[in-house]
Amino acid sequence: MNRFYFGGSDSSGSDPDEDNLPYPKPLARSAFLTRDFDPTAFLSSLHNRHQTLEDLRTELRTRSQELNKELLDLVNNNYQDFLSLGGSLKGGEEKIEEITVGLLGFRRDVEGLKKKIEDRRKEVEKLVDERRKIRKEVQLGRSLLEIDQRLEELEEKLMLVSMGANSPDNKDEPFNISDTEEESDGEEDASVLSVSRLQRRVQQYIYIKRLMEKVGAEHPFLIKQEERLSRLRQTLMLDLSNILTRKGSPDHYGKEDVLKAAALYRDMGESDEALRVLRK
User: Is pLDDT larger for residue 111 or for residue 43?
Assistant: First the structure.
């Protein structure tokens, strides 16, 4: 390494054998091994280094040559290992192909499972829809059966010939009418219909109409029952008009009964019919 000296060309009084100048130490290799090595920052850290720029260049060049020589020696010393590594890499394409084929097979299996799950989901959804439809149809059937039974009961109470009665022994009471009430009503004059009994008959008629509206008047079964419902209405209208006009037994029906009969007209939605009867 080149050395430099302080002072001019006059060297009198100095001993050339004595050298007390602060020569710089060799650059440490560890300074170049940091992850965030920055050449500019590294050179800036050498501002207190007693060394010329040319000497620094020479030292760095020497260090580069040493590193190249070490790398060459490393390759020469491990040449057989490098050859073995190259041989072990031969056939890697086949292994990659095998892995690729395996992944493709796995992908097909996954897609197959997904398809089976989707098909199963659609099947379950279809079964749920069918079950919902069946339950709806069962509920509809029960409603239609209830309508037929209540029509038959009301026809029996009003002593009409049932057009669709299937069970003459049917004794179900739609509005929890007790036997004592029916018996007490039976003790009255057969030619005169009590207002309380007529109220129950009207309530039964209104309930039947509500059931039919809930199902839908356009249902074929209900269309066939319109004649029966019309006969029930006509019978109830006749009984109400007798009370409203006090026919048959003028002394039996009082003003209170007339008012109740008018209210029953209103409940049935037949207020206009009540006015027509009163105007006669």
Answer: 111
Cα(194)–Cα(224) distance, integer angstroms: 31
Look at 89-98, 174-183, 215-224 and tell me which has the smallest mean pLDDT. Answer: 174-183
Selection from 207, 139, 217, 220 nearest residue 172 by Cα: 207
Q: Is the pLDDT of residue 210 over 60?
A: yes
Tell the residue number behind the tokens 């040493």, with chain if given.
66
Give the up-direction half-sphere exposure of residue 116: CA atoms within 13 A in the CB hemisphere.
6
Amino acid at 167: S
Q: What is the pTM assigned to this prediction? A: 0.47
Burial of 232: CB neighbours in 10 Å, binned 0-12, 13-18, 19+ = buried
Is the distance from CB of 1 to CB of 59 less than 8 angstroms?
Answer: yes
Q: Give the pair of three-digit tokens for residue 69.
A: 């020589």
* Nearest alpha-carbon partner for 66 in 23, 25, 29: 29
**236 neighbors 198 (Cβ within 8 angstroms):** yes
Q: Which of 202, 216, 217 is nearest to 154 (CA)?
A: 202
Give 211: exposed, middle or buried? Use CB within 10 Å, 0-12, 13-18, 19+: middle
Nearest to residue 147, comparing CAs of 171, 167, 174, 176? 174
